[in-house]
Amino acid sequence: MKGDTCRMTKEDVKSRHHHGDLKAALIKAGIDLLEEGGLSALSLRKCAARAGVSHAAPAHHFDGLAGLKQAIAEEGFRLFSSYLQSACDSGAQDPHGRVHSLCQGYLQFGLDHPGILAVIFGDQGLAGLVHGGGKEEADAYLTLRAVAAPFVAPGQDRLVVETQIWSLIHGFTLLYLAGEFGNPPPPIDDGPLTQVIALLDRLEPVAPS
Question: What is the mean pLDDT of residues 14-23?
């Protein structure tokens, strides 16, 4: 039985490689390592071991560790975008309600996937990825842009309002994950987040022209 299990494992790995799924398996392995041990746990060798292939295999798909991080970031942004959009869709639909929902979704993503959060914001900000990144990166920022839009006055630079919202929730998320509000931290819906994001209630929706 043990021999059969080993043989099946090798066949599965060979099949994944044959069908072009090895890259996806390595990305999945990298995400798993991040979820378990944070950014310091991520390495090409560990990803290869987790995926059940030779330590040289990642070189066929990634340009070093930086290439693996970029691939993980692309997958991470898909998940991040989903968190933000789902939070906005499920909460109150008035302008301030959507701001609150976006912030809650942002923090929840950080709590559920702190390693991925560290990777996707490792080298550049979210706003810079709208033009330089892929669809997933743009989707995440455009969700923020849509939430901020009701507060942008005619002639005002929309980036100012977007940055107010983004800076507050991103900074809060990092502090929350660092244990600044206690360890374990307080619940999202009954803790300092509610009081902090209330600062954004000072934003005034622009009346339709």
Answer: 57
pTM, two decimals, is 0.80
DSSP code of residue 59: G
- Count how many Cα atoms sit within 13 Å of the Cα of residue 44 in the half-sphere of its side chain: 18
Per-residue pLDDT averaged across 77-101, rounded? 95
- For Cα atoms 173, 112, 99, give the angle at the middle one, nearest 5 degrees: 45
Residue 200 DSSP code: G
Nearest C-alpha neighbor of 118 from the set 178, 58, 64, 50? 178
pLDDT greater than 90 at residue 56: no
* CA 146 to the chain's CA centroid: 18
The SS3 of residue 185 is coil
Over the stretch 147-160, which tens digit does the pLDDT of each residue have?
999 999 999 999 99
CATH number of the domain at 2-62, please? 1.10.10
Using alpha carbons, list the distances in angstroms from residue 126 to 81, 120, 143: 11, 8, 11
Locate the domains of the chain by residue range. 2-62, 65-202
How far is the C-alpha of 189 from the C-alpha of 203, rounded, in Å?
Answer: 21
Q: Is 110 helix (H, G, I), strand (E, B) or coil?
A: helix
Fold assignment, 65-202: Tetracycline Repressor; domain 2 (1.10.357)
8-state DSSP, 1: -
Q: Which amino acid is at 149?
A: A
